[in-house]
Amino acid sequence: MSLVPEWTVRARRPGPLERFGRRGPRGSRVAVVTDPAKAPFAAVRLDDVVVVTDIDPDYPDATDGDFHLVRRHFDIRSFGVNGITGGAGDEMVEPHHEADDEENGTNGHEELFAVVSGHAVFTVDGQDVDAPAGTLVFVRDPALIRSARATVDGTSILAVGGRPGVAYELSRWEQSLP
Question: From CA 4, how far away is CA 127, in angstroms rounded?
Answer without folding.
Answer: 53
